[in-house]
Amino acid sequence: MSDPTTPAQPVPPSSVVLVSGGSRGLGLAIVTDLLESGLKVAAFARTVTPELAKLAGAHPERAHVGPVDVTDLAAAQAFVRAAEERLGPIDGVVNNAAVGQDSLHVHTATTDIARIIETNLTAPLQLTRLAIRRMLAQGRRGRIVNITSICAQRGFPGLVAYSATKGGMDAATRSLARELGGRVLVNAVAPGFFASEMSAVLGQTQLDQIVRRTPTGHLTEPVEVVPVVRLLLRDQTNINGQVIVVDGAASI
Amino acid sequence: MKELSRAQIRDLMGEVLKNQGKALPADDAADLREVGFRSLDFSELALRVEDATGEELNFDAPGLRRIATVGDVLDFLVELQRQ
């Protein structure tokens, strides 16, 4: 079935946003920013950290948090239903939950490769499917933001499976944007390496090299990524199916 | 599980270097940069140990970054076999 191209109505700003992996790091920063911006936020993570619990306690009417492993689809479904009962229909999703990698491909256990793919690729595709089905079934519009990585576009040792999943999500972003015909805006934000991760994922030599090659002279901080996520969820733009890199031009 | 001794791993390390026209110093304190033993050489050595023992040796990268000498390589692989 082919669709005629008709001007779609603008997708309204998201008002109830589901955030996966919202308990720490960038996810926690996104949850914090959205709540401070007046949105309602449903956030889950494998463990609800004291920071996330405190945040939810400060916004009891607008926050719904819980412990959910993103790979547990049934638990995610139950969480979404409970969140919508409390906050209203979800019209925004931030796929942030992911596991990292720090091992050369030849020395990465096959079970670890499967776990990385399940968490970083299969689970966000399932969660997105779940959210979109609910949006479409209720005749709503919405916005999806996938948090990917510069690893999807540039090569780094020790991150083969991780990079593959992030590249997969970048590709899914483009196809979903096409598939959803402007009714749901789908974009990705690809941060460069965060300072907090660098010492763990890359060695000091690589860290120094990346900083030297970054025109802005510093590694990306979560606070620099959050406004881009908010823009994609809230602002009236025609950005759709794009991957926005936030890395200070380190990769160009 | 068959386990290689430190001396056996040292022999394999010598073979890895010999294939590249390099020599393995007798001194365990020898610096890997001076020897010319790079991270992929370490991978090759680990895979040779795997072949010999029949067991996969999987490990994260941070451990590798602490390895600076021939002795560090041998200690790491001996320890890894026991995990």
Automatic annotation (TrEMBL), chain A:
A Pfam family matched in the record: adh_short
SUPFAM superfamilies on file: NAD(P)-binding Rossmann-fold domains (SSF51735)
Coiled-coil annotated residue ranges, if any: none
Keywords: Oxidoreductase
Keyword Oxidoreductase: yes
InterPro entries documented for this protein: KR_dom, NAD(P)-bd_dom_sf, SDR_fam
Protein origin, superkingdom: Bacteria
Residues in Ketoreductase domain copies: 15-194
PANTHER family registered for this protein in UniProt: OXIDOREDUCTASE, SHORT-CHAIN DEHYDROGENASE/REDUCTASE FAMILY (AFU_ORTHOLOGUE AFUA_5G02870), SHORT-CHAIN DEHYDROGENASE_REDUCTASE FAMILY PROTEIN
Record-stated family: Belongs to the short-chain dehydrogenases/reductases (SDR) family.
Protein name as annotated: 3-oxoacyl-ACP reductase
Lineage: Bacteria, Bacillati, Actinomycetota, Actinomycetes, Micromonosporales
UniProtKB/TrEMBL annotation, chain B:
Top-rank taxon, per record: Bacteria
Start and end residues of each Carrier domain: 3-81
Residue ranges of coiled coil: none
Matches recorded under InterPro entries: ACP-like_sf, PP-bd_ACP
SUPFAM superfamilies (UniProt xref): ACP-like
Identification of the protein by name: Carrier domain-containing protein
Organism for this UniProt entry: Micromonospora sediminimaris
Organism ancestry: Bacteria, Bacillati, Actinomycetota, Actinomycetes, Micromonosporales
